[in-house]
Amino acid sequence: MTDFSNKTVYQIYPKSFRDTNGDGFGDIPGVIEKLDYLRELGVDYLWLTPVFISPQRDNGYDVADYRKINPMFGTMEDLEELIRQSEERGMGIMLDMVFNHTSTQHEWFQRALAGEEKYQNYYIFREGDPDRAPTNWESKFGGPAWEYVPALKKWYLRLYDVTQADLNWDNPEVRGELKDILCFWKKKGVKGFRFDVINLVSKPEKMEDDYEGDGRRFYSDGPHIHEYLKELVRDAGIEEYVTVGEMSSTSLENCIRYSAPAEKELSMCFNFHHLKVDYKDGDKWGLMEADYKKLKELFVEWQEGMQRGGGWNALFWCNHDQPRIVSRLGNEGTYWKESAKMLAGMIHLMRGTPYIYQGEEIGMLNAHYPSIEQYRDVESLNYYQILLERGETEEEALATLAARSRDNSRTPMQWNSGKYGGFSETDPWLPMSAAFREEITVEAQEKDEDSVLAFYRKLIAMRKKYPVIAEGDICFPETGADMVFAYRRTLGEKEITVFCNLSGEKQAVKAAGAGRRKRILLENYEGREGSLEEEICVLLPYEFVAFGNVED
Ligand code: NOJ
């Protein structure tokens, strides 16, 4: 398996990246237009969220044809051109494979509905009482996880939207079809794949009610998952490609197996535990202050655990499903720039492969929409109703969406300070973030050596320059400060230490002369109060500093 330790991946949500034909939707030619910008940033791979034929009920995660490009994004020729032009600039394209489910518009599902048994076996259909679903499992988007089809007198499983029917991976024909799709895209020259909620694909043989939760414990990291992944990767011949699995409610033990090279499953895994530290009682729709102690513990557990077990992490804060990290854990006002840089540095120098989600590199903020009319996401719209039914007022429900909606990250990319941020000439499909300001645009930041963008460029370059960042071991020195996250990377004689102040207050850190005879490699403040060479040093609000002996 190939080593991706010095690479950085950039995630593009094409619908919101750049609209070149003036229809309000971003498109593939828009990605091509920005390739020089991405090369300058220094990233190695571009992961495109799904651009296939889809009714867009879940913005492309409801695929109706895995081999065709949705005309809203362009043509197959456009994608081929993108692959070619990216390659010319030293970047590879990764496509997003949504293999847990298809759209109910997919031909397979349509044929299943028409009564063809072969295709009914492609999905998870169960006979049963029309008034009682086969199990009490809940959909991740709210409501029951099963849908009844009166004409067939059968239920089908759908862990997400009613139009996203779960595939039956226990059927070897289904696995064969999915392998063929990967081979199709390999031939087109793509260099890697992101696999959507891949750890949910192996469902238990016996489906039973869940009296403790929503059913996820029965199908997350399910019974045959490792076997199926090995088979898919081997049969599609993608062992040397960059592959990342999105793992929902997974475990460290399983992620080690998914990503340890000897297992020949995937190159790396996304897990989401660190992004649940502000969920009240584990509920995404319950608001609470982030638990920073828990956040630190989770990073320590996963970094040390993956290192011990030989697994590999995908490092990330943001994606198209998560609120913007500066709005979430940083500071949108006085320390906007400092906190954006600190959060970037914290992630990028750890052990793993970093991912940047479009707009993160300029410190974009949440949407701050004042009314429900501005939201588009199916999950947000469903949950708005559910929250009202649970007794929240409209104001409260809107406050919850403002913090948790997936639309927070899907607002159009802010290229310049034009009316639509240089994303489009026309009203975009989703309104601009209400927090859009000139300072948070690519155009403004490209002119500024001290910008968040410049900081990201440095972090990406550092990973390539210093093998200790790519390959080194990680450990976590004690600092005595609850709101400071610190780690040390070491490779032979070389070492880099990182301090991150997670708070808006100054923090005294027991450093025991940490910086003595070490050079500062990157920091987000010009001057420091006191010195890293002292026994105790004081970090400023959201201060980030990385220092070491790599340049001796
Ligand atoms: C995870 C994707 O990231 C999300 O956007 C999607 O809604 C679900 N999987 C279902 O495909």
Which descriptors apply to this entry?
single chain, 552 residues, alpha/beta, 8-stranded parallel β-sheet, 5-stranded antiparallel β-sheet, 24 strands, 29% helix, globular, binds 1-deoxynojirimycin
Uncertain stretches of 5 or more adjacent residues: none
Compute the separation of the termini in Å: 33 Å
**Rg:** 23 Å
Average pLDDT level = 97
Identify the overall geometry: globular
Major β-sheet annotation = 8 strands, parallel
Give a description of the structure.
With 552 residues, this protein is an alpha/beta fold. It is built from 17 helices and 24 strands. The strands form 7 sheets. It has an 8-stranded parallel β-sheet with strand order 13-12-11-5-2-1-17-16. It is globular and about 75 Å long. 51% of the residues are buried. Residues 58, 61, 98, 160, 196-197, 246, 320-321 line the site of 1-deoxynojirimycin.
Quick description:
The protein is an alpha/beta fold and 552 residues long. 1-deoxynojirimycin binds at residues 58, 61, 98, 160, 196-197, 246, 320-321.
What's the arrangement of secondary structure elements?
Elements: E1 9-12, H1 28-33, H2 35-41, E2 45-48, E3 52-53, E4 65-69, H3 76-88, E5 92-97, E6 101-103, H4 107-113, H5 117-120, E7 125-127, E8 146-149, E9 154-157, E10 164-166, H6 172-188, E11 192-195, H7 216-219, H8 225-236, E12 242-246, H9 252-259, E13 268-270, E14 279-280, E15 283-287, H10 292-309, E16 314-315, H11 325-329, H12 336-348, E17 353-357, H13 378-389, H14 394-404, H15 442-446, H16 452-465, H17 467-471, E18 473-475, E19 484-491, E20 494-501, E21 507-510, E22 519-523, E23 536-539, E24 544-548
Parallel strand pairs: 1-2, 1-17, 2-5, 5-11, 11-12, 12-13, 16-17
Antiparallel strand pairs: 3-4, 6-10, 7-9, 8-9, 14-15, 18-19, 19-20, 20-24, 21-23, 22-24
Bound molecules: 1-deoxynojirimycin.
